[in-house]
Specification:
Helix 3 packs parallel to helix 7 and helix 10 packs antiparallel against helix 16. The protein is built from 19 helices and no strands. 83% of the residues lie in helices and 0% in strands.
């Protein structure tokens, strides 16, 4: 393929976005399910002891910077620019290749520096580890795992290329590889009697290489074979850096929020593992719904703005919010109402005991309060990023940081490790309030339409009615959960009660119409 891309495709229909959401959401759901299996196995093999906590911190370090460089600052600036170049036929391949080469060079140097500075990075993540076995293990594991940031950041850029060209499958499927490799490593360690902590740590960079290979091949098939070349400074890359800088600062603020929570947790026994497992549970609906919507919505809004389609932009924004909240609000209610059965069945086995279940479930309920806010952030932020406005979200993130720090640090002496989860949830709502207020001057395309405003209250009513059904179902099934061989069936019945009751009440209240969903699915598959 030449340096100039092929002629852009026709403008997308609403069903194109629905199809993209279903593709991303479906693969993300598979990844999250495998992720749960992975975490169940880690909890069973390692419990909440020194190896488990050291691995969590070591794995969190590249993922912290991953959100900073990959899905965060860099991609939030790169995707709108690439999508607009693709729409205009303005050499998108050359721009993507330059960005890929620059990111490769920078992250190679950054990775070497981080491996050298690993003791200080571990202390920055979990100062409570200082002077005990957890610190030594975390430094060792961190040096093994950190190169993952290089592979996954390059994979994220390639995923942005694929998403902008409306090819969502490979990018959405890549995280599945991570969990498959983790599970294989755990089974191998158990079968051969290997050290479980070190084995799964080595699985991290191997999984990163596998993910990068998958999306690189998919991008090549799409006509974007990004072969590295000597980095060069071009006007487009200067503009990309200028746009990405505020987003990088905003990403840094978000990561400081995470660090605050981790530091608070590191000072309480096993709290790092409790919060990690709770985070994994609420990340399931967040990943399937919020992240999927955000991935599809950003390039969609960028195209609409480039084409001057204000009405189409409002429709895309409103339908994204409607679909996301119709799935997220009932999930949040479930996390608040029945966290103990969820944690007990998913994690309580081996070295993960009843006390760990109770502590993790409490954090799950607190995170549930913030789940709709986490998803709404994914919906509102593309309004700014599609306009190449990364400064405003940075200022909002600073305010969110202050809220989180005040709550997490100030309440830790009162409510212990739960202060970290509460600070995260409340600061997320503070961020949403600012994003909504700041989007008002953007005009019609940033306003939720009449259909959304009519239906959101019905979605809330259906979710609350479902919550009552779940609570009653938990009371009835309580004795069954106490039977070791039957708790899986009990949880399946409880989930069925929640799903059936929610869709029944949603249909009764008119929260959504099945005919619209079926029509969207048919068009999305066409």
């Amino acid at each position: 393929m030449s340096e100039r891309a092929a002629k852009p495709e026709a403008p997308p229909t609403r069903s194109t976005m629905t199809s993209g959401f279903l593709t991303v959401g479906g693969w993300t759901l598979m990844s999250r399910i495998l992720g749960f299996l992975r975490d169940m196995m880690i909890a069973a093999y390692l419990g909440t002891g020194a190896q488990a906590q050291a691995f969590i911190v070591a794995f969190s370090l590249p993922n912290l910077f991953r959100r900073f460089f990959a899905e965060g600052a860099f991609n939030m600036a790169f995707v709108p620019m690439f999508a607009k170049k693709l729409e205009a036929g303005d050499d998108p391949l050359g721009f993507a290749r330059d960005a890929f080469s620059a990111l490769l060079a920078f992250l190679s140097l950054f990775t070497i520096l981080a491996i050298w500075a690993m003791p200080w990075l571990v202390l920055a993540m979990a100062a409570g580890f200082a002077g005990d076995e957890r610190f030594t293990l975390a430094v060792e594991y961190g040096r093994i795992a950190f190169p993952y940031i290089l592979f996954i950041s390059l994979a994220a850029l390639l995923s942005g290329v694929l998403n902008a060209t409306r090819r969502f499958a490979a990018a959405a499927a890549a995280p599945v590889l991570l969990n498959v490799i983790f599970i294989a490593a755990l089974l191998l360690a158990a079968r051969l009697g290997l050290d479980v902590g070190r084995t799964i740590t080595w699985a991290v960079p191997i999984a990163g290489m596998a993910q990068l290979a998958l999306v690189w091949l998919a991008a090549r098939r799409a006509g974007f074979a990004l072969i590295p070349r000597r980095p060069r400074i071009t006007p487009d890359l200067v503009r990309l850096a200028r746009i990405a800088a505020p987003a990088a600062l905003a990403g840094g603020v978000v990561q400081i929020n995470l660090l605050i929570g981790r530091q608070v947790a590191s000072r309480f026994d096993a709290a790092v593992a409790w919060l990690y497992n709770a985070d994994r549970l609420y990340q399931l609906p967040l990943g399937v719904v919020g992240i999927a919507i955000g991935i599809v919505l950003l390039p969609e809004l960028s195209r609409r703005l480039e084409a001057g389609d204000t009405k189409g932009g409002q429709d895309a924004f409103s339908r994204a919010a409607e679909i996301a909240l119709a799935l997220t609000i009932p999930a949040a209610v479930a996390l608040i109402v029945v966290p103990i059965p969820l944690v007990e069945v998913l994690f309580q086995r081996g070295r993960f005991g009843p006390d760990d279940t109770a502590a993790t479930a409490a954090a799950v309920a607190v995170y549930g309060l913030g789940l709709p806010a986490f998803v709404l952030q994914k919906i509102y932020q593309p309004l700014f990023f599609a306009r190449e406005n990364t400064r405003t979200p940075f200022y909002y993130a600073l305010v969110s940081l202050l809220v989180n720090a005040a709550l997490a640090i100030g309440l830790a002496p009162v409510i212990g490790y739960l202060a970290a989860a509460l600070g995260t949830s409340i600061s997320a709502w503070a961020m949403v309030w600012q994003l909504r207020r700041g989007s008002r001057p953007m005009g019609r395309a940033a306003r939720l339409d009449g259909r959304f405003r009519r239906r959101i209250w019905r979605i809330l009513a259906a979710s609350l009615a479902m919550g009552i059904c779940l609570y009653l179902g938990q009371l009835v099934l309580g004795p069954v959960f106490a039977l070791a061989g039957w708790r899986y069936l009990a949880l399946a019945i409880l989930i069925a009660i929640g799903a059936i009751s929610y869709f029944a009440f949603a249909r009764l209240f008119g929260a959504f119409r099945l005919a619209e969903m079926k029509a969207g699915l048919r068009r999305g598959q066409g």
